[in-house]
Please model this.
Amino acid sequence: MNLSFEKQIALVTGAASGMGLAAAQAFAAEGAAVILADVNEAAARAVAQQLVTAGHKAIAIRCDVADEAQVKAMVEQTVSTFGRLDAAFNNAGIQSPVAEVADASGEEFDRVNAVNLCGIWSCMKYELLQMRKQGSGCIVNNSSLGGLVGLPGRAAYHAGKHGVLGLTKSAALEYAAKGIRINAVCPGIIDTPMVSGMLASQTEAMKEMMKDVPIQRLGRAEEVAAAVLWLCSPGASFVIGHALVVDGGYTVR
Model:
């Protein structure tokens, strides 16, 4: 299977750590010039410099995806630097504290979904403006197993992740005939800094979740990155609006 991204331009949000970092490294390894966008500019620049030192093309851009103006500037800088945009992994996301719906605040709901849902929408909007001009491109949005199931105490997070799949499917239908493919990944419990924090602060709840993972281990960020690259590759050329589950079997119990 051809996963080469030679002479292609790939944008990854939330690229300074976790799944975004793994995807950025994988795109670079397959020949793409990579834009690493993250709210943590210093960390993104450090990774970009590592990739450049290793012989790859990479730049870092500070971007808070909750700010539409910053998202617009991110895509504009991508195009002004490299001339086009071929693949995007809209990965940036945050977690919310466990809380029953009746006890959660509106401020917390808005904070989480400004990134996890509105941020995906903004990224797609400006990526699609460029891809529509080109008549080509691939977008993968990061949802979650939380986009497929419900869990007590996580309504705010799961609401946004369900919404990502709705955005993905509707946009995929709009652009399939225009040379642009849009899909999503739904990771399970992946060994990332976010999950490490949850394991430390929500130990009992996470232990209960892990009991329901048939493969009986955490996923690896590289396993999600492999799914993202496949969805952006010619091998997935007939895959439109799909939510590819990478969860060790959690959602098929």
